[in-house]
Amino acid sequence: MLTRIKDLAIKLAPRLIEIRRHIHSHPELSGQEYQTAAFVAGVLSSSGVHVQEGVGKTGVIGELKGTGNDHRLLAIRTDMDALPIQERTNLEYASRQEGIMHACGHDVHTTVGLGTAMVLSQVAEELPGKIRFLFQPAEEIAQGANWMVADGAMENVSAVLGIHVFPSIPAGSIGVRYGALTAAADDLEIIIIGESGHGARPHEAIDAIWIACQVITTLQQAISRTQNPLRPVVLSIGKINGGRAPNVIADHVQLLGTVRSLHPETRANLPKWIEKIVANVCNSYGASYQVNYRQGVPSVQNDYALTQLLQSAAEEAFSSDRIQVLPEPSLGAEDFSVYLEHAPGSMFRLGVGYKDRTINHPLHHPQFEVDESAIITGVVTMAYSAYKYWMHG
Question: Which Pfam families has this protein been placed in (predicted)?
């Protein structure tokens, strides 16, 4: 079966590169993936895969039924949305949409999902169970997985596999990670309320900008002194709104940020911990405050057995020196974690770096590029892992 999968993938390679370049040239933002979804649905239909459109707003589901009696249902999830970034790669197939770019490799993910469906549809008679392909919108705004789940995408699913490109791993290799792969990502809003006054008479006012600075500094210092350093927390304030004029002391400042953590217990304690620090600083200087903490997506926790399945499938398909067991998680976030609340799963890292380049630009960079030979590595890994899933009880 491995030989058949590899041969089919290699034959499909030119078509898959064509598909990837088409998607790359026509990127769409989160929740607006109408053209991409229609294109995906067309490719799936022409491969004999049963298609359901409009799932999770702009998502697509493809279902492929094997001929066996295994009732387990395996889901394979890929995402389709692009980022609001102006592309600066000068590629002939660069984005044709002003200010929108596939800078996170979702064009590659979608292509790998389609390639896996195309390969497995040609060996369906050898599959003991059913596969559901989830083409998800709006991963970049951490909404799409929730939309898909709300529309029944995970009903009866026994396990789910995912993929994400990784420019620091060379094309032809993959990375697997046991346990935590990504961080939980939460949204933070802090409002400092002071009292306005003349810039020349600060003692008559309560300076919300100065107090906001104290809050930011204290939070950053407190992380290193009060949080367990073996359980990382990253708190970044990315936006500050406040003030009306250079000579008027501001009475109102809004801080907006993101909070990343890996451990569920740490995450559960963060809202109270943050509020206590904000309260102490504000009380010291006579200001009042509001803290609004919104939980976003949880941490991706890869299932041990399914990660082992991915690793063994890739080692059989390629060689063990092309498989990296990643020693560290990422503090980036992935709403793949939402699916893991409904079934065990594992996401692997697909190496897309060019071996001969000194710089492979990181994800979300306007010059981010991928070595397209990685697409076949992704398709073979995913398709063979899917086949092996039913072979392992």
Answer: M20_dimer (PF07687), Peptidase_M20 (PF01546)
Q: Residue 131: helix, strand or coil by DSSP?
A: strand
CA–CA distance, 6 with 379 (Å, rounded to integer): 9
> How far, in Å, CA of 393 to CA of 387, rounded?
12
Residue-wise pLDDT for 289-345, tens only, equals: 999 999 999 999 999 999 999 999 999 999 999 999 999 999 999 999 999 999 999
Interhelix angle 2-25/304-317, rounded to 10 degrees, is: 100
Number of Cβ atoms within 10 Å of the Cβ of 204:
11
d(CA 29, CA 8) in angstroms, rounded, equals 32
- Distance separating alpha carbons of residues 146 and 157, to the nearest angstrom: 15
Relative to beta strand 174-176, strand 323-325 is parallel
Comparing C-alpha atoms, which of 274, 268, 279, 334 is closest to residue 301?
334
What's at 61, amino acid-wise?
A: I
Alpha-carbon distances, residue 56 vs 135, 144, 149 (angstroms): 10, 7, 7
Return the H-helix or E-strand segment holding 336.
helix 336-339
Q: What is the largest CA-CA distance in the chain?
A: 81
pTM over 0.85: yes
- 5, 25, 191, 226, 335 from 233: Cα distances, Å: 42, 37, 21, 11, 19
- Taken as a whole, the chain contains a residue count of 393
Sheet with 323-325, strands from edge to edge, namely 50-55, 59-65, 130-136, 73-79, 159-170, 345-353, 174-176, 323-325
Distant-in-sequence, close-in-space partners of 53: CB < 8 Å, separation ≥ 6: 37, 38, 41, 60
Rounded to whole angstroms, the Cα distance separating 35 from 13 reads 23
Task: Give tens-digit pLDDT for 235-288.
Answer: 999 999 999 999 999 999 999 999 999 999 999 999 999 999 999 999 999 999
Q: Is 83 helix (H, G, I), strand (E, B) or coil?
A: strand
- The angle at the Cα of 171, spanning 167 to 177, to the nearest 5 degrees, equals 65
